[in-house]
Give the backbone structure.
Amino acid sequence: MAARRINRTDFLAGLAVTIAGAAALVEALRMPRFETRGADPFTVPGLTPGLLSAVLCVLGAVLLLRGLSGHMVAEGARPSITRWDRASAIRSIFTVVSVLVYGVLLFGRMPFMLATALFVFAFTIGAELINAERRLSTPMLVIGALVLAVVAAFAINFVFTDLFLVRLPG
């Protein structure tokens, strides 16, 4: 019986994400809870980071287990993280530049919902236009990106302001 191969990329990434998530969860649990002040448990500072950290731990563990199982994304596929072609580089550069434009130029300089809607719209259009396997026509792409941008901006605003009680800039 042949020994099972470990998918090193998934294993190492899963290990890193699980460790980072666990460390962040520990720190979130160490944050003050303000019980002596009668604070609402849903408004304590560590709640959101704790929930996000717990999700990271779970997803990291799933990736870790997938790495141990030896399965690849597709039968016989090699992890593409070790081979960067021109398209991968373009997508990565586009993503980094887009996020920097959002974070440095838009966020905090205009209303949050407008900045977020502009970012989601521009990112969706740009990502699809550089996708060589794009199937949507340009008009359908623009309509879909517009709908996604508006829905995402309202949903993100609602989650942060109404559920997490975070004041957003703008």
Notes: The mean pLDDT is 86. Residues 84-163 form one domain. The longest helix spans residues 138-163.
